[in-house]
C-alpha cells in the first residue's frame, strides 16, 4: 500500500495519484507539471474544455495563484476552509491554461480530509484534480470504486483513505465578479453560505452555462436509472406498479420491500446526509453488478441538501425523475 510520503514522491515524479478527500476521491497531478495534467484529461477521457480544480493546503500562499482575494472570499475561506467549498478566482499567470481550459478564472479548494492534508503538506505545491472517475461515470467515494474504473490505466497510483465522509462533490462558488454566484451545488448548502456572507447568492441561470463540466452527462451508471421522488407511500406504490423485471435493482430508504436485490441509502427520509454519502457508492455498486435497470427512492423534503442531490440525479438519470405529487 502506498504511503503519503511515497504518493508525494510519485506526484513529484510526474505520475498521477488517486487520493481521498472528504467529498469524493480525486485523480491528482502536480499542478505545475503540464505533461502530468495532460494525462489526467487522457485517462479520464475528459474534454479539454472542462477545467480542473486546484487543491491547496491551508497555509499555501494563494496570492501566487490568483490576482486578487475579494473580502467576501476571505470570509468564506475563514469559515469553510479546510472543507468542501471551492472558490473561483481570477487566475494569475502562474496557473497554466491547460488547468483552466483557457478561462481567465481558476477554481481552488482546500480539502479537510486528513490524508489529503498530509499529502498537500508533504508536496508543498498545489494538486490539480478532478473527481476520480472516467468522464460521465459516477464519482468514487471508496478506493475500490476508483480502482475498478482506473485499474487498467498505466501510471496511476492509489492512496487509501477509507470511505469519503461526505460523498458529494464540493460546492463551487464564483467570487471573481461583483455578485457571488453558485456554479455547482455541493456538500455545503446555499443556505449555509448565505448565512455566513449575509447576502443572497445568485443561482445559475438555466440559459447560460457557467461551469463547463455542467454541460455534460455525468455520474451515470451503465443501467437505466429511474428516480422516484415523493413521500414513502406513494414512491413504493409507484414502484410496485411499475416494476417488471426480476433483475431490477432497488435503492431504498428504510426497510427493503419486494423480492429484489437492494441497497439501503439511509434509514429515514430526512437523513439526506447519509443518503448523499452513499449515493455514488450505490451507483458504483449497480455497475459492479452490471445492473440493467435501477429504481431509486428519493424523498420529498425541504432538506438543504436536496438541490445538490437533484442536480446529481438529474444528470445520472438523464432527467428520468418521476415526481409524485
Ligand atoms: O469535491 C470536489 O470538488 C472533487 C474533489 C476531488 O476535490 N473534485 C471535483 O472535480 O468534483 P471535477 O473536475 O469532477 O469537477 C469540477 C467542476 C467541473 O464541473 C468544472 O467544469 C468546474 O468544476 N470548473 C473548474 N474550473 C472552473 C472554472 N475556472 N470556471 C468554472 N467552472 C470550473
Ligand atoms: Mg467530476
Description of the molecule:
The longest helix has 17 residues, at 272-288. The protein is built from ten helices and 14 strands. A hairpin with a 6-residue loop joins strand 8 and strand 9. Helix 1 (4-12) crosses helix 5. The mean pLDDT is 95. The chain is globular and about 60 Å long. It has 325 residues and is an alpha/beta fold. The chain has a nine-stranded mixed beta sheet with strand order 7-1-2-6-3-5-4-8-9, sandwiched between helices. The chain has a five-stranded parallel beta sheet with strand order 12-11-13-10-14, with helices on both faces. Threonylcarbamoyladenylate binds at residues 21, 23-24, 26, 50-53, 86, 88, 100, 103, 105-107, 109, 129-131, 169-170, 172, 183-184, 211-214. Residues 130-131, 139 line the site of magnesium ion.
User: Shape, please?
Assistant: globular
What are the secondary-structure elements, in order, as H or E?
A: HEEHEHEHEHEHEEEHEHEEHEHE
What is the helix content? 25-40%
- What hetero molecules are in the model? threonylcarbamoyladenylate, magnesium ion
Radius of gyration: 20 Å
The biggest sheet amounts to: 9 strands, mixed
Strand percentage = 15-25%
How far apart the termini lie comes to 50 Å
Unreliable stretches covering 5 or more consecutive residues: none
- Counting DSSP E segments of at least 2 residues, the number of strands comes to 14
Helix tally? 10
Mean pLDDT: 95
Please identify the structural class as seen in this structure: alpha/beta
Strand order of the largest sheet: 7-1-2-6-3-5-4-8-9
Amino acid at each position: 500500500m502506498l504511503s503519503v510520503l511515497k504518493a508525494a514522491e510519485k506526484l513529484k515524479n510526474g505520475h498521477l495519484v488517486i487520493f481521498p478527500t472528504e467529498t469524493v476521491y480525486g485523480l491528482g497531478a502536480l499542478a505545475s507539471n503540464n505533461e502530468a495534467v495532460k494525462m489526467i484529461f487522457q485517462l479520464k477521457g475528459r474534454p479539454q474544455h472542462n477545467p480542473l480544480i486546484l487543491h491547496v493546503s491551508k497555509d499555501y500562499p494563494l496570492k501566487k495563484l490568483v490576482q486578487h482575494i475579494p473580502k467576501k472570499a476571505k470570509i468564506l475561506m475563514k469559515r469553510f476552509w479546510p472543507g468542501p467549498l471551492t472558490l473561483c478566482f481570477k487566475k494569475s499567470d502562474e496557473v497554466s491554461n491547460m488547468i483552466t481550459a483557457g478561462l481567465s478564472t481558476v477554481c481552488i479548494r482546500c480539502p479537510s480530509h486528513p490524508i489529503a492534508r498530509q499529502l498537500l503538506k508533504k508536496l508543498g505545491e498545489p494538486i490539480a484534480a478532478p473527481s476520480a472517475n472516467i468522464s460521465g461515470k459516477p464519482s468514487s467515494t471508496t478506493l475500490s470504486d476508483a480502482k475498478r474504473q482506473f485499474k487498467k490505466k498505466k501510471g496511476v497510483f492509489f492512496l487509501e483513505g477509507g470511505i469519503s465522509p461526505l460523498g458529494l462533490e464540493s460546492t463551487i462558488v464564483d467570487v471573481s465578479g461583483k455578485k457571488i454566484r453558485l456554479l455547482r451545488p455541493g456538500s455545503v448548502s446555499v443556505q449555509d453560505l448565505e448565512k455566513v456572507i449575509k447576502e443572497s447568492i445568485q443561482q445559475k441561470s438555466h440559459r447560460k452555462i457557467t461551469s463547463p463540466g455542467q454541460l455534460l452527462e455525468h455520474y451515470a451508471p451503465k443501467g437505466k436509472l429511474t428516480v422516484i421522488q415523493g413521500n414513502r407511500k406513494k414512491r413504493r406504490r409507484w414502484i410496485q406498479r411499475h416494476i417488471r423485471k426480476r433483475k431490477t435493482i432497488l435503492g431504498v430508504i428504510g426497510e427493503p420491500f419486494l423480492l429484489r436485490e437492494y441497497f439501503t441509502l439511509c434509514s429515514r427520509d430526512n437523513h439526506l446526509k447519509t443518503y448523499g454519502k452513499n449515493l455514488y457508492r450505490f451507483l458504483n455498486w449497480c455497475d459492479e453488478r452490471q445492473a440493467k435497470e435501477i429504481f431509486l427512492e428519493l424523498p420529498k423534503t425541504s432538506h438543504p441538501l436536496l438541490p445538490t442531490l437533484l442536480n446529481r440525479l438529474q444528470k445520472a438519470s438523464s432527467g428520468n425523475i418521476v415526481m409524485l405529487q
